[in-house]
Amino acid sequence: MQSITIAEEGFAYIFKCIALYSGSCFYLLLYLAGLVFLFIKGDRKEKAVFVYPAFVLLLTVFNPLLPVVIDHFFDINDEYYRFIWTAPVVLCIGVCIVKLIFEFSKTDARKVTVFVVSVLVIMAAGSFVYSDGYRRITNAYKMPEEVIEVSRLIHLNSEVEYPRAACDFELDMELRQYDGKILSTATREEYINKLNNIEVDDFIAEKQKHPNRILDVIVLNKKDVPIEDFEESLNATNTEYVVVSKESPILGYLKKAGLEKVASTGARVIYRYKLKDPVVFELADYTGVWEAGL
Amino acid sequence: MILAAQSILLIIVNLIIYFVFGSIITQRFKGDNSSISLNIVLGFFFMFVVFDIFCFPVMLKWRPLSLLSHIWVGVLAVVFLLALILNRKYYLSLYRSFSERFSKNRLFYSLIIILVILQILIITGAYYFTLDASYYVAAVTTDVTTDTISIYDPFTGDWLDHFEFRYFFATYTTNNAVMCYLFKIPPVTYMKISMTAVSLILSNLCFYMTGRKLFGKSDNKVAVLMFFSVIMNFFFSSIYTPAEFLVTRSYEGKAMLGNIVLPMIFYLAVCVYEDSKSLSAYIWLFIVVIGATALSNSANMLLPVMIFVMFTPLIILKKDIRIFAGALISVIPGFILSLMYVAYVKGLFVIYTYPR
C-alpha cells in the first residue's frame, strides 16, 4: 500500500490498511459476523478452523502493534496488506450461508428465500469487478490491437533485430509483454516515479538522467526540455523510436528535434530518430563460458 | 483460432502433468483423502519442487532456456513412465471412485463444471490492464525471446549483471517459459489464457476439496459453497483482495498464492484436525510450502504466518506434538528464504550473471 506508511500512521496503520484493503466492500464485516455465528452455532471442526484461528489473527495480523514492530526491522509498507489474505473471508462467509440454507431453513421455500437474500447481500456488500465496463478481448494475445500494430510497424521500419523505443506509459507496459524484441528506454520504476513525481536520491537521479529526460518529454509533455538535451538523451539511450498519442501536445516538439514520422496506428504516431552513433544490440555470448566449463 | 486451440490444449496438458506428479506422492497414501482433485492440486506444487532441482543448476551456470526445456522433457518422460508402471492400479481405482460418484449425481458435477467453465470464459474473455503483468508476462517473453533464464531485464530487455534476487526462487515464470518454448506458443497467450484457466481451475478445486471436507458427502452444500465463492470472487473487489487478483491477474504467482496456496493450507489444516496422526497431511503441507516458493517471493513471508494462524489452535486443541513438529518443519523453508532475501537487500551477497 503505497499511499500510507507505518512510520506516519503508527498504531492507526492497521485500521487504515483494513479500510484501503476493503475499498467499498463490506466483506470483512460479513466475515466478522460469520465468525460470531460460527462461534455460537458452529460445530467443533468449524470452530477449530475458522473461529480460533481468527483469535490468532486478532492477536497478530490485526494487532495494531505488529506492523509497528515489524517496521523497525523490515520495510513492509507495500506488502503488509497481504497478511490479511490469511483470513479465509470468502470461505467463512460461504460456509455460513450454506449452514443458514441447509441447517437453519426448515422448508424448501425458506431455503430458496435465504439463498436469494444471500446472493443479494453478497452483491450489495461488494463492488463488481467489471463495474467500469467489461472490455472484451479481440485477439488471442489479450492485447489491444494498438500494441500488436505498433510492434509490427516498428519491426517493418527497423533494420535491426532489437530496436529500442520510448513509448507512452500504457503502451510501454504492454509492448514488452507481447514483443521481447523491442527494447524499452525506461524501466517501470522510472515511469512510475515520473508519473507520481517521486524524488529519487542524487546517485540514482544521475544514473537515470537520460531516460528521465525522455520521459519528461513523452510522458509529462514538457516542451521546456532543451532540444539538444533531448537529442543527447536519445543518443545516450540508443532510442531510435518514439511512440506517442496522436493527440499528444509534443508532436511539434518531436518534429523540431528532427524526428521523422514513419508510421501511425489508430491512436498513435511512431517517430524515428536518426541516431548519431547507433549501437546494435546483441545478446551476450556465453559460449566461451560454457566451453570453459564454468 | 490455432492459438486459441493451442492454449486450450495446454490447459489440459498442464492438468495432466500436475495429476501425474501428484499421483507419485499420493499413491503411497492411498487411503488418505486421495482423489483426482487432490492429485492435481498437490501435483502442481510437487512439480515445482522437482522443476527447481533442474532449474537452478542450469540457471546458475547461465545455460540457455532451450537446454532446460530439453532436460524438462526428459524429466517429464521419466515421471510419466514411472507413474504408468507404478500407478496403473491406483489410476484405475481413482477413475472407478470418480465415475461412481459422477454417475450418482451427474447434475451436481455438471453444474460444478459449468460454473468453472463460465468463470474461465468470463475472465479469459476480458481485457484488463495490470501493471504487474509488465513483469510477470514480460519475464516469460524475454526468456523465450533471448533463450536465456532471468539474464535480461523484463522491463527494458537490457542485460542484467546479476540475478534479481526478489524473483530468483520464483521459478514459476521460468516454468512458463519452458512450456512456451516446448509448445511454440506466444508467452502472452499462454500466460493470459492457459495459465489463467489453470489458476482458476486449481482455485476452484481447493474450494471443492475444502467443501467436501467440511460438508462430507452433501453435494448440495458443496455446490452452494462453490457458487457463493464464485460470486464473491467477482464482488470482493478492491485492488488488494485475493479475489481481485484471481479475477484480473489470475496467471500471476501472487494470485496463485492468495487463491491456491493459502486455501490449500486451510484444507490441510482441516485434514490435520480430522486426523492429526496421519503423516500424509504433514508431507503434503511441506510439499505445498516448498512448491509455493516457486510462485512468489511473498510466499516466504506469508506461509509461515498462515501456518502459525491455522495450526496454533490445532496444537492447543489436540495437544499433539506431531502437529507442532509438522508446522515447525513447514515454516523453516520460508524463514530461511526470507533471511536470504534480507541478506541480499542488505548487500551481503549477489549472484552474478557472468563468471567473476
Descriptive overview:
- The complex is a heterodimer of chains A (294) and B (356).
- With 294 residues, chain A is an alpha/beta fold.
- Chain A folds into two domains: 6-125; 145-272, no CATH class.
- Chain A contains 15 helices and five strands.
- Chain A is elongated and about 80 Å long.
- Chain A starts with 5 loop residues before the first helix and ends with a helix.
- Chain B has one domain.
- The model of chain B has no long low-confidence stretch (mean pLDDT 95).
- The chains are: A alpha/beta (294), B mainly alpha (356).
- The interface between A and B is large, with 88 and 92 residues.
Q: How many structurally independent domains of chain B? A: 1
Supply Rg of chain B.
20 Å
Helix content of chain A: 40-55%
Nearest-integer average pLDDT of chain A: 94
- The N- and C-terminal alpha carbons of chain B lie at a distance of 48 Å
Question: Keywords, please?
Answer:
heterodimer; A: 15 helices; elongated; B: 356 residues; mainly alpha; 13 helices; globular
Give the structure's gist in a few sentences.
The complex is a heterodimer of chains A (294) and B (356). Chain A has 294 residues and is α/β, with parallel strands linked by helices.
Strand and helix layout:
The complex is a heterodimer of chains A (294) and B (356).
Chain A: H1 6-9, H2 13-22, H3 27-41, H4 44-59, H5 65-73, H6 89-102, H7 108-125, H8 145-157, E1 164-167, H9 169-178, E2 183-184, H10 188-195, H11 202-207, H12 209-218, H13 227-237, E3 241-245, H14 251-256, E4 260-264, E5 268-272, H15 287-291
Parallel strand pairs in A: 1-2, 1-3
Antiparallel strand pairs in A: 3-5, 4-5
Helix pairs in contact in A: 3-4, 3-6, 6-7, 8-9, 12-13
Chain B: H1 2-26, H2 36-60, H3 65-104, H4 106-124, H5 133-146, H6 172-183, H7 187-215, H8 219-235, H9 242-248, H10 253-274, H11 279-292, H12 299-318, H13 321-345
Helix pairs in contact in B: 1-2, 1-3, 1-7, 2-3, 2-7, 2-11, 3-6, 4-7, 4-8, 5-6, 5-7, 7-8, 7-10, 8-9, 9-10, 10-11, 10-12, 11-13, 12-13
